[in-house]
Structure formats: C-alpha cells, structure tokens
Amino acid sequence: MKYEPGNDFFDEMFTADGQVRPHYQGLQEYIDLLGVPEFQRRHGLLDLAFRNQGITFTVYGDSKGTERTFPFDPVPRVIPASEWAHVEAGLIQRVKALNLFLGDIYGEAQILNDGIIPSELVYTSSHFRREVHGVTPPGGIFTHIVGSDLIRDEKGEYLVLEDNLRSPSGVSYLLSNRDAMRRIYPKMFEGQGVRSVQHYATSLLSLMQSVSPRDNGTVVVLTPGMYNSAYFEHAYLAQQMGVELVEGRDLFVDSGRVWMRTTGGRRQVDVIYRRIDDDFIDPLAFRRDSSLGVAGLIEVYRQGRVAIANAVGTGVADDKAVYAYVPDMIKYYLNEEPLLNNVPTFLGSEPDHLEHILANAGNMVIKAVGEAGGYGMLIGPASTEEEVAEFLVKVKDNPRDFIGQPVVGLSRHPTFYEDSSAFEGAHIDLRPYILCGKDEVTIVPGGLTRVALRRGSLVVNSSQGGGSKDTWVLDHDGPVTPQGQNQMMHGDGQGQSQSQSQSGGGSQSQTQSQSQAQSQPQPQDVVADAEGLPGGHSYQQEQEKDVLESPDLNGSAGEEK
C-alpha cells in the first residue's frame, strides 16, 4: 500500500515514520496481496450493492436530488481489543450518568439545586419538556439508544465530541457496511479475529420488549414517513426486528391505550421506538399543526401504559451546552473521574466564555446547540472574514444558542479515492451505538466510522459530503498470529471460523462460518463489471443466492427476527 501518513494528524493505520500499527498488519498484507486494480474493481461493486438494496440517505434542499447512495470506503478502521475496552468502559460510564441526570431533572432536580449545573441552562433548553415532568419511564430508562460521537486528537486520545440521545441514526449503515464487506471482500476477514456486529437487531428488540408495560408487548417503529432522511434505516430496523413500521396515521388512542390499525382489526401497542422528534409526536401536547404524531399519546405515556424509546424529553441532554457539563455529572452521580474527556467547550451563555468566542472565532468551531448533521456550524479557519462576521451577529443576538470549541485535528485514515486510484488520508470520527437496558448496557463492537471524503475537510456528516467505513473491533491487540496470516494469505477457509469462535461464537458459529468460507468465491470469481457474473447471473441474483445459501447469514437473520 503506497500511503503517506504525514505528521500533522494522528494516523490510525501508520505511525509517523511510516510503520504499520500491529493491529493493521493483517489488513495491509491482504490489500497488498489483492493489488490496487482488483481492490478498485471490487470497490466499484459496493455502490451497486448499496443501490440494489436501497441503502440510501436524503439531503434536503439539494438541487441535484435528495436521495442518494450512502458513500462508502472499503478500507476498514481497525480497533484493537485493549483500546476498545477503554472506549467501552468510558461510554458505559457516560450513559449511566446521562440517564441519572435525566431522571433527576424531571424529578427533584437535585443537581440543579446543588449548583452543579445552572438551572437556567436546563430550563431554557429548547428540548426540555415540562409536559413530562414527574414521569418515570418504564424501567426508569430515559436513554435506550445512544450514539455518542468520538474523535481522536493529534495525540491519539479519544474525546467525546457530542452525545446523540433523541433519535441517533446511522446504525443501519454500520450493519449494511459489514454485510457488503463480507460479500465483496470475503477473504479480508479470515484469520483477523473481527468481532461480530450482527446481534444488534436482536439486542435492540430484547431491549424494547424489556421495557414493555405488558408481558409479550407489541413493539412498533414510528417513522415520519418515506421522505425523512433516515427512512431507509427506519424500515431496515423494523424488518430486522420483525416488527411493524408505522406512521402516525396508523396509530390512535382509545380508552387510555395506544392502538394500531391492522387488516385484522385494532391491536394494542406497548412500545414505540420513535424516530420522530418530541415536537411532532403528539399534536395535543406539543405542536398542534403536526400530522406526523398520535393525538393523545403523551397522556397514555404519562399513565405508564406505553413505553417510548427514547423517552420524551431526552433532548435536553442532547443540547451542546449541557454536553459541557457531562464530566461534572459523572463526578456528581457516580463519584468517578471521566474515562473519556470532552473537547474543551466555551458556552455563549457565560459572559467570559462569550468574550473568548468572539475574540477567537477565526480559530474556533462555533456550533448552534440544537443543530445536527453539520448544519448551523462555523469552522473559523475555513471561513472568510465576511462569513465569520456574519455568523457572529447570530451569536451576539442569541448567545445561549451557541458554543465554541477549538479546532481539533481529527485523526486520519487511509481511504481509497477512485479518481486517483490511490490511498490518501481522510479525517474520520466514530459513532458507537449503546443500548441501555434495566440490567445491562450493550455496545456494538465498533460503531459507524464516518469519513470526510472531501479532501482536507474536517466535516464527516453525510449531508456535507461525508461517507463511512466498516469498523472492526478485534479480539486481540495484534498483530495477526502467524497461523492466522497463513490462513488469510492462502485462503484455506479456516481463519474466519476460528476468529468467530474466539470471539464467543460457539460451536454453531464455527460450523456456520466454515460452511460459508467453503462457499465464498475466490478473487477471480468476483464480477469484473457491473453488468453480470460468470455463468450469466446478475450481480443482484448472485447476492441473493449467497444470502440464501449461507448458513451463517440465515442463522443471524433468523435470530434477529
């Protein structure tokens, strides 16, 4: 692999002097063996695979069209076992504190009474919901699904950039990325010890059922509809869990309960995995002009007869100004030091902080506290003086609505660019997905690695030209064992089953993966173009054939449903 890591940013795969990091050695050897032409040929198949499966996202207000294939880079990010253990412990600590914080502020608000967090900051948040004050969700869980964004600074330290607690999106791309990589680059995984992510849908469904007010309750996924930017994900997760995907018009309230309209009559709904913001979820409680929600839903919720995930009102902990106080929450509720640090944050609501923001705007990132997706943000070094001055007018008018952070040089990762047929460094972040149940916290090994595909850009959001990578968490720290390397290079089909067995797959997983390895095509069997495969089969037909004939994939899908 020809690649220049550079010295200005932390490179995930290579040290500054060009040496590959131990946990990446197996990956590098595979890419070198495959060769750039073959790697590029398979790269071209990924977009076709995503289009055939409808793996898309939506960009609002784009003159080129709204729906497009989610950009994907096939050079995976690799995280060694010990490094992941630290990240995992830090995330568990963080979500525990956030859940306690939400329970507190919608109850006795002790943390506010003790002056740890300014009361005004919480009560002026646009996401604080007085309508649910005093309501304890089933199981006492507010944050069922969390997606915290992590970055690595120039020294390689993991930092939390922000928390997403309302409706964190992107996990469908994580799962689809892994599935596509296993199809297009099957030998890449052999002998590497990559931990599985396929249990996510099963874990999500178990979590939803665990907070049901009734035994064997009915779970649904509530979507705003097909024009929402994340509609693919809503449909995907409903299908994977084997539950109904519904819109607001499919539900109604009667006799103090929520019901779903079906062809066989009405059916009581017990758990709603909502992908609709609080404002639109119930026109009787929030926005009266909303046609997306269910009239009367909040009253049923207050009575404890339906669970909503994530709980109504969690957005107050999503506020980028409240984010600055999460380390204080950890110390206050858990009596522990934070394992993962925040990015230094200046609050527009604090006069001295505001002064610093205004004086150093050209060297900072300034964000609107309630925006997401890369919107409402100024990157000072990448902006003109006129752009900075114009943005600061907004900050001065509503200082509470903005925070400022120093520009952090996000870590870089080798990324394949088709226009140059070369591997170049691109900035990345990481969004792990955390499932918080009554008794345990489950984190998918890895998460969604987002990559800034525009050369030199620090913005990884898909709406701003970003894409994603598969994220590997290994069951070791590397390098790959000599036995594993030999298996990977010679393709004898045993390495994958061994790595899955080592990561807790059990005898069934080992048997399944051995069967899959025997049926995987060799490099020369992979389609050379987007038109068809040897033997006259279309690429889509061959994909479907692989899914149907693979015991491993069928077994996983069956368990997930």
UniProtKB/TrEMBL annotation:
SUPFAM superfamilies reported in the protein's UniProt record: Glutathione synthetase ATP-binding domain-like
Region feature (Disordered): 460-561
Biased composition (Low complexity): 495-524
Domain Circularly permuted ATP-grasp type positions: 76-452
Name assigned to this protein: Circularly permuted type 2 ATP-grasp protein
